[in-house]
Design the sequence.
């Protein structure tokens, strides 16, 4: 006999957990079940997140990302402070490496103003007063509201909130497939009133079981961080380069963890399968065939500058290259101070396969029976609280 659930949520990352919280808060009499294929929640993208709470000035004012990042940063900062969770409110500098980047630096400032984000234009001298090791050409931007948290600690706190509210969390329970209104899992079936797909890198595959994601596929990108040794000279403030505004990646930067450790990264290296963290772990032949063939096509045609991106990112497997690249942002970085790679993560980046374009904003599809979060890329961690409320608003509309 299938178990019943008014709301069945697939995926126990920060988005899935907060969707469960919103569902239970708005419908306290309903049964809300969250299934997660791993032994614990936040095992993949959420737990491997950089932990940076972004302020919201990278995105155009008409995007969902702009609004949710701005509001999410404040709300998640307040949440951590109220719950006594670790948080490093050390701010962020965005620096220009040459005269050619000043135009995009100005564009970031305009986006910040339009988005209502606290952001300051400062001189190179002012930048060095904030962070003595910062290097910039003529001027920089300073974001005082950017902060860093421990992502695993935040996920555990939301998990505790969900369980306390009455959400049934089933770990070691993998989505297998759909049979009408029944959802088959590795631990039996569920008869679900409404299915919410927040499965991250596998969200597109699950969505296709419901007739969605016809124009979309998720492409995995591997993110690596290189940690500075504990006895190396410290950095007080996060330092970021001016990004390529045509792509959703921010480039190699310096961030400071809640424990004060400096890390360089992340990379955005095309992965060969969806959970391609290290070696042959989690290898699936069919999955690799699909991912690699699609990447090869993008490489040959250089869609969305994929060829240059791939070549550039592959170089970042070299410690010396990472340190040298970060050295354009901060003085005194030495290779001998960076000896430890961090735990890799996978970024689930949605691609529109009919237009051969990266999807830059959040993306979802739904009907009266199911909702599918297809693109919840960075900064989804920062956006989690307002984004999941918005999703549930759309669910209430779709479900009638």
Sequence:
């Amino acid at each position: 006999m299938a178990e019943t659930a008014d709301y069945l949520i697939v995926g126990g990352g920060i988005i899935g957990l907060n969707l469960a919280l919103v569902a239970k808060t708005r419908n306290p009499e309903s049964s809300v079940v969250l299934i997660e294929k791993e032994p614990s929640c936040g095992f993949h993208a959420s737990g491997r997140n950089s932990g940076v709470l972004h302020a919201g000035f990278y995105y155009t004012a008409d995007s969902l990302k702009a609004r949710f990042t701005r509001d999410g940063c404040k709300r998640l900062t307040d949440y951590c402070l109220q719950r006594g969770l670790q948080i490093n409110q050390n701010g962020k500098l965005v620096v220009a490496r040459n005269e050619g980047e000043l135009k995009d630096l100005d564009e970031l400032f305009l986006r910040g103003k339009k988005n209502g984000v606290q952001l300051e234009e400062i001189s190179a001298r002012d930048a060095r007063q904030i962070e003595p090791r910062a290097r910039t050409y003529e001027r920089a931007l300073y974001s005082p509201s950017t902060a860093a948290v421990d992502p695993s600690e935040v996920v555990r706190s939301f998990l505790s909130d969900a369980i306390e509210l009455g959400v049934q969390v089933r770990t070691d329970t993998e989505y297998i497939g759909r049979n009408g209104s029944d959802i088959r899992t590795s631990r039996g079936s569920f008869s679900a009133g409404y299915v919410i797909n927040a499965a991250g890198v596998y969200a597109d595959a699950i969505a296709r079981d419901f007739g969605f994601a016809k124009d979309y596929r998720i492409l995995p990108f591997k993110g690596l961080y290189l940690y500075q040794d504990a006895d190396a000279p410290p950095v007080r403030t996060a330092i970021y380069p001016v990004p390529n505004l045509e792509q959703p990646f921010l480039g190699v930067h310096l961030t400071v963890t809640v424990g004060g450790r400096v890390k360089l990264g992340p990379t955005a290296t095309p992965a060969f399968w969806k959970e391609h963290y290290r070696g042959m772990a989690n290898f699936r032949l069919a999955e690799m065939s699909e991912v690699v063939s699609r990447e090869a096509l993008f490489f040959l045609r250089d869609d969305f500058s994929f060829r240059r991106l791939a070549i550039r990112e592959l170089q970042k497997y070299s410690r010396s290259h990472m340190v040298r690249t970060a050295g354009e942002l901060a003085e005194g970085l030495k290779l001998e101070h960076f000896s430890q790679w961090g735990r890799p993560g996978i970024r689930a980046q949605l691609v529109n396969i009919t237009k051969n374009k990266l999807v830059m904003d959040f993306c979802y599809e739904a009907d009266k029976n199911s909702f599918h979060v297809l693109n919840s890329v960075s900064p989804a961690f920062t956006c989690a609280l307002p984004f999941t409320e918005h999703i549930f608003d759309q669910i209430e509309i779709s479900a009638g």
About this structure: The first strand starts at residue 3 and ends at 10.
